[in-house]
Amino acid sequence: MSRNYTKQGRETQKIKEKNPVPWLAIGLLRTHSLCIFVLFFLIFFVFSSIGRVSKADFELTGDVLAQQEADRVIRLPGLPEVTFKQYAVMEELCFIGFFYAIENPEEKPLLICLNGSD
Question: What parts of the sequence cross the membrane (predicted)?
């Protein structure tokens, strides 16, 4: 038994002597992989805890709802009535028009910015 064990030990030693770098690289690779895994886990944990937003952060107050209703366009002269909500705001030289999608407004966000000139 001891002879076989010694022979096996000598073969392993020969492999280590011929290729010392791969043995070192395997150990570093294991350590490096563990470090990368821990780093990604920490980054994921930090960003997932930062991204927690409650519904209360997006609830509209009475003042905001009143302003929205004041900006709502109910009808336009010479045009037929529409079945969707539309809003218009004029601030100095900036006109903003907002129109809800007729079907599935939650799934169809759209923003168009048109710049005019004098």
Answer: 21-47
| 56 phi, psi to nearest 5 deg | -65, -25
Same domain, 43 and 75: no
Residue 13 in domain = yes
Q: What's the CA gap between 102 and 85, in Å, rounded?
A: 9
Q: Give the domain range for residue 40.
A: 2-50
Give SS3 for 52. Answer: coil
Q: pLDDT tens digits for 52-104?
A: 666 666 777 888 888 888 888 888 888 888 888 888 888 777 777 777 777 88
**Distance from C-alpha of 25 to C-alpha of 13, rounded to nearest angstrom:** 17
pTM for this model (two decimals): 0.40
Question: In this structure, is residue 115 part of a structural domain?
Answer: no
**CA separation (Å) from 35 to 23, 25, 32, 44, 70?**
19, 15, 5, 14, 57
Domain count of the chain? 2
> Comparing C-alpha atoms, which of 112, 98, 94, 93 is closest to residue 67?
98
